Fold each of these.
Amino acid sequence: MVEFVFPEGTKIDETVPEKARRMYQRFYIGPLERGFGYTLGNSLRRVLLSSMEGSAIVGVKIDDVPHEFSSIEGVRDDVAMIILYLKRVRLKIIGDKDFVRAEIKVDNTKGDAPKVVRAGDIQGSVEVENKDQYITEVMPKYKFRCELFIAKGRGYVPAERVQFMFDLPAGTIPIDAIFNPIVKVNYEVRTTMYQERADYDELVLDIWSDGTITPQEAYEKSIDLLIEHFEALKNYVERGKYERERKDIKVSTIEELLKRDIEDLNLPRKAYEVLKSHNINTVYDLVKKTEKDLLALPNLGRRSLKEIRETLLRANLDLGMTDEQIQQKIMEEKKEK
């Protein structure tokens, strides 16, 4: 049997200055069988640029401003420009919460010169990386206040979807959210010597981040994410057999079904795991949730939502049901019997 050569590990470029490693790092991975440099390099690059979790401002509520095309008295920039500058703010939420509020409050009523508002003026449970980022300028005798809504997520989410995903209060202007903390990824495959052979690959990976996560943290998370996906593929056959066996489960009444675990609905694996991770354990827990509630859950998209609704509808149930509606369904079923 011809054995594969596996990488001995990852080497970090020690020539990169310690201060610079917060935002840039180079990694050497090898030795690798021929072709595996490109296989791993492309996979890691795609995951790093699309699947890293980050934080972003998803909405802003400015005092006495009805919409994004307004101008603000005593403030140099109009709302559209302020939003543009807010998109450039790189920050992260402190703690385990997925959604927090913060604010900017600048009082220049006693000043005699314009006062610059920067990202460092943001107050709340967040850590701002680029504190010098310009946001606007407040003229003398005026003050400026806005409330910011910050969320965790992945990739890019346009403003119209942000409005639907997050519970933003009335008067809030949704903002296109760029969650990904990785700015750029390059890779190069070189030839390296190993065990007296010079035809092995060495992968050289360069990662740039925005500073809210270090390149090394992102590199390790991308590897973990790929491993989880491959583990899921390896277990797919067993899971598929298990699901087919469970499809014969029959529940005599809606009342009984509502008490059952969501596992009995035979939902797709991804949807099932997302629901479980957010303490949606029984069918009753699920029907009490609205479409908006489910779409706000990380990693649960419209396709999974459609499959969940179709499954519930086949059982004569739906999302967003009140206790009164549930009782009505139970009573109707009893009358039919």
Amino acid sequence: MRPRVLVLFKMKSKPVEELKKYADVDFLLYPSVEELAEKIGDYDGLIVSPLNRVPKEVIERAERLKVISCHSAGYDHVDVEAATEKGIYVTKVSGWLSEAVAEFAVGLTIALLRKIPYTDKLIRKGEWESHAKIWSSFKDIETVYGKKVGILGMGAIGKAIARRMKAMGTEIFYWSRSRKANIEAEVGAKHLPLDEVLRESDIVILALPATPETYHIINEERLKLLEGKYLVNIGRGTLVDEKAVVKAIEEGKLKGYATDVFEKEPVTEHPLFEYEWETVLTPHHAGLSREAMEDMGFQAVRNLLTVLRGEVPDTLVNREVVKVRPPEKVRML
């Protein structure tokens, strides 16, 4: 019997065509938790985007489900613990996505330091003479060149950021759970304790996943180490205590904050909206590009098919699941 796979978002057509060679594919676009819980019992595989929540109440009703393939590097929208308990494999993607996110991180940094979004708004209002105001604020406009850049998290995305920042004439510091000799040799990155990275850097970029250990890793105390500096977040919204960030900006202590992610999404109102000069804000789309979307689609399909072939993919998130349900027990292909 062919596996049945449910896709919860508008996936690129070519990866879907590949998946249909091996499985029967249905779409349920951006369902509520209740809608998904009602349907999930009929499927062997699930492909989800970061906008698709898969909480415990869905997983409890997933009687046939063997694999949840995340079309993203992050997986905090899936209850991985509940999936593991039920013997469901959870996978993620990397590759081209890492390059797209790293490129976006650099773009956010440049936009923040050079005040590009702010001045773009002025010229669209017909306020060309506002350039006199901008010129008078030249001390608040800075180049990335010559800065010390600290990167928290040196996985694939962190490394891709480091390569780009090195090419822009910066000095690289980083903190990660383990030292990365390859990137140290490649770009001269220096591994330091977390708080030392904050002290030494002019710009700090967050490229960490959301875990209990990284929750509010930038809190009110650590923001004191970032006085007069810039903070950029392309990791997850929960890495940052947003109330503390707002306070630091309001008091003139944090020079600027650029983020693609928020503690609670989607965002329609936020205190940060008031600080147009000091912030650059985007709606969680750092990985969005034609190339990255197609590459992620093929990776998500490969990951799902690998599990259904009774194999363990390199991108498996919950490694302990193999003890709950060995790979040969989920084999369908």
